[in-house]
Amino acid sequence: MLTRPKGFNTFLFLKLPSAYMSGVRLKSVNDTTCITTVKYKWINQNPFNSMFWAVQGMAAELSTGALVLGFIRESGASVSMLVAQNKASFTKKAKGRITFTCNDGAAMKQAIENAVTTGEGQVCWMKANGVDEAGDVVSSFEFQWTVKQKRAK
Question: Looking at the chain, which terminus has fewer C-beta neighbours within 10 angstroms, N or C?
């Protein structure tokens, strides 16, 4: 599993520059949990003096997607990944540092193992909650990830 947030944040800078420029960062990742953060600032604001919803979505998706990438890499197989659907709810203005946590690593690991073993595409919903510095949930995101082993050419 990916255990070096600094290396992953370099990947973020090179491959997802809009997320990096908005302040999205990977803080920690292990076999079950991934934590990302983003801080409210001028570049990611909306007209209502809070963080733009799409910036929250990038941080939330990264907290799920880093787990997917890590397990695909760990499997050694050629597996494609795609977000097929997502849902979001917002309960409070996002100000300050928002921390997104996804605890669905075990479910995704199983989905990837099933995709590699069976050759069939798999679907896995993963949830990420965004919490502000006071401990209040400001937003919740759910992403439906699809994973499928790529066919040999």
Answer: C
